[in-house]
Amino acid sequence: MKRRSSRTSAVTPTFTTSLLWTLRVSGNRSSDLVPLPSELVDVLAEHICEDLTCGGVYHVTKSSSPSGTSGFHGCQYQNQHLQNCSETVGTNCSVLSEVVCAQQPVRLSGGWDRCSRRVEVWRDGTWGTVCDDLWDLRDAEVVCAQLSCGYTLSVTGQNGQFPPGSGPVYLDELNCTGSEDNLWACPSTPDQSDCGHKEDAGVVCSEMRAIRLTGGLDRCSGTVEVHRNGSWGTFCDNCWNVKMASMVCSMLECGVEPLNFTAFNPPLAADRGAASYYYHCTSYNLSLWECEEMINHAFLCDLSKPSGLICNGSLGLARATTASPTLVTNWTTAVTILSTAAGAASPKPSPELLSTIALALLLLVVLVINTVLCCLYRKRHGAGRGVYRCKQLAFQQ
Fold first, then answer.
1. Are 42 and 61 in contact (CB under 8 A)?
2. Cα(388)–Cα(242) distance, rounded to whole angstroms?
3. How far apart (Å, rounded) are the C-alpha atoms in residues 9 and 74?
4. Residue 208 φ then ψ, to 5°
5. Other beta carbons within 10 Å of 269
6. Are 129 and 87 in contact (CB under 8 A)?
7. In contact, 225 and 233? CB cutoff 8 Å
């Protein structure tokens, strides 16, 4: 081994957030890698997370150091610093890329999209939930930002759209400003919750990806719409095919076979102010979200119409879904009306319509009688006088 004659500068943690860190050499070598003996890496990660009062280690990302790289040996750890290290070239070491302490992780669970689910936080090796007491948009904003899910659209709690969780309820009565790195940094009453899991907090973030059918007799038929970045847009029908239609039916839990996906007459109306989405799918894609997505593509969507779909067995038969109630609408289209009306008896006219028709016929009879009387009077008393008298009779009528 070849040892350098001098000691290195101190090695210190560099924080991405208060509970997410890696190692860097201080001074003008801050971009250098910090290879350490493999047996030291995990121990050091535990020490630093504990010194930060962030619990233990949730996850360590590390890799083998490149060949010929010098490693740091004989370090002394004190006050979140490695000091008096010696560099040795050619040793087998590991490089710490990132350490996540145990009070940093958050996840969304129990839903149909990674950015729209029940909120859970990690501590002491276990996932737990958050109580919905005082749970609001500012608290949820911390979660959406931490998960790169945009901003908060809505929050849920007791009797919400997401199923209850299990395990401990870690946080209660949160009072975040919305700018914190994670929920553990917010004022709260941890470990003093009187909540059950029926009160688990949830969130819907703007980067939620969802799909729905609007304008049909039930949620399994209508115009195909896609949710991205907080708003709904249409699915342009260029290259829209039976495989994509089957994907959508399956994603909506409306079976796997489309009853109709093309040739709607009249064509489905488009909202010209909404975004248009185009998806390029291959035979290997099982979900629409695995396909290549393009938004407002000038060539592919400008002259296209919105895609429509009637899943097999829809026709007014509602089916259970885990989707948000805000995503389910009542729909009517000309095509689905024709489908359900086929073979059904013609509707009977209402009493109001019959009364109107009878009154119109009565007025027509009165008008005919009045005209005949005028003509007879004119023949008997002369043309000029008859016309005058006829006008008088008409006026009196």
1. no
2. 75
3. 13
4. -55, 130
5. 12
6. no
7. yes
Measure the CA–CA gap between 224 and 247, rounded to whole angstroms: 12
Lowest mean pLDDT among 25-34, 59-68, 252-261, 306-315: 25-34
Q: Are 270 and 303 contacting, i.e. CB atoms less than 8 angstroms apart?
A: no
Q: Which residues pair with 224 in a beta bridge?
A: 213
Tens of pLDDT, residues 336-382: 322 333 333 445 566 767 778 888 888 888 888 888 787 777 777 65
Structure tokens at 354: 């019959």
Whole-number Å distance between alpha carbons of 188 and 190:
6
Q: How far is CA 136 from the centre of its chain?
A: 18
Dist CA 35 CA 25 (whole Å): 11
Instruction: Judge whether 314 and 217 are in contact, CB under 8 Å.
Output: yes
3-class DSSP assignment, residue 36: strand
CA-nearest of 123, 114, 93, 108 to 287 is: 114
Specify the pTM.
Answer: 0.51
What residue type is 264 in one-letter code? F
**Helix, strand, coil tally for the chain in percent (to 5):** 25, 30, 45
Type of residue found at 210? A
- The Cα-based distances of 192 to 128, 175, 185, 197 in angstroms read 14, 15, 17, 14
Q: How many helices (H) and strands (E) does the chain have?
A: 7, 23
pLDDT tens per residue, range 268-320? 776 777 888 888 888 888 888 888 888 888 777 777 788 888 888 776 333 43
Tokens (6 digits) for 235: 């699915």
Per the CB < 8 A criterion, the answer to whether 81 and 68 are in contact is no
